[in-house]
Write a structure and sequence with these properties.
Blueprint (H helix, E strand, L loop, with lengths): L10 H11 L3 E2 L11 H11 L13 H15 L9 E4 L1 H13 L5 E6 L5 H7 L3 E6 L8 H7 L4 E7 L11 H13 L4 E5 L24 E6 H4 L8 E4 L2 H14 L5 H10 L8 H16 L5 E2 L7 E5 L8 H12 L1 E2 L1 E2 L12 E5 L4 H11 L3
Parallel strand pairs: 1-11, 3-4, 3-5, 5-6, 6-7
Antiparallel strand pairs: 2-8, 7-8, 9-10, 10-13, 12-13
Helix pairs in contact: 2-10, 4-5, 4-9, 11-13
Length: about 375
Amino acid sequence: MSKLPNISTSIFTTMSQMANEYQAINLSQGFPNFPVDQKLKDIVIKWTQEEIHQYLPMSGYPSLLEKIAKLTQDSYQRKVNPSTEILITAGATQGIFAAIQALVHTNDEVIILDPSFDSYEPSVLLGKGKPIRLELNEDFTPNWEAIAAAMNSNTKMIITNNPHNPTGKIWTENDFNQLELLLDLYPNVIVLSDEVYEYITFENKHISAHHRPKLWNRTVCVSSFGKSLHITGWRIGYVVAPESLMIEIKKVHQSLIFSINSIAQYAINDYIDVVKVSELGNFYQQKRDFFRSLMQETKFELFPCEGTYFQVASYGHFSNENDLDFVKKLVTDFGVATIPLSPFYDKGKDVKCIRFCFAKDDETLIKSAERLMKL
């Protein structure tokens, strides 16, 4: 009997397979198609020749843990203990899974804000928790009245995703104020803050849970080197949490994977000294602006994009097709693969919106827009 009877092949896998089958331009999965920094590749080549191919400590390469602590201090003015409050993970998804398995118990309720990333609910279900799916407002901002109404003595965790995938929204100061007011009423609730796109924000800068001292003792922050350094295939991220929570997360982590790829950790440890993640937002803002300018010539209605490398667009004003059929038609008839938003919603709510990934080279974006103009 299946533990996850309602979980099927992810929409990301499905659309990438269709893109390959029909030789379509793939704007579906969230990965860059441009080269990785040559400096990083050179560092990797160097370390492959060294004898560093055995297990590293379970928490991570100590020097890299120190570098992450410094990055957190420089980015957010938060001091964390590298030996007790940081854990290197096999991508952000594994960090999220380990945190939920460690901290959510049978019948604990976990609030998930839809549209939401598809790994959240299965992780809660495998931990025998109860996912409480709540919709964001129509403009994809948090609905604090609905969140407040859903919280009770059984609420164990709220999962936040900021900057938000798939919509590109970022939280405001007021959002954090509202969250903190609610947490004052429910002192046992833990925040799982998915911040994998933390360095990819534009006009308004990212506000992190790291910025909020009131949250530090009850928040698990999840970050991604894959997203920040354009190396999604490396599957490496990290978790920052207070020691009391991290002790439990590490118990799951060591049973699940023990330690992370040694070469990747050594390489990132060196590379973090020469890369400026603070400039990542400017890099992607240029791509966002370029893609949005190209899309002005299409029928799509673009939503604001405040962060991430995703652009949500509405098509409901010119087509009544459900979003799953619509994206399949885009692949088969127009040669562009995108992601529908319905799989991000409980029970597959169809809001007639799709998601584009603009983390692509200019030639790819131009060709995509040319094809989409034919709609």
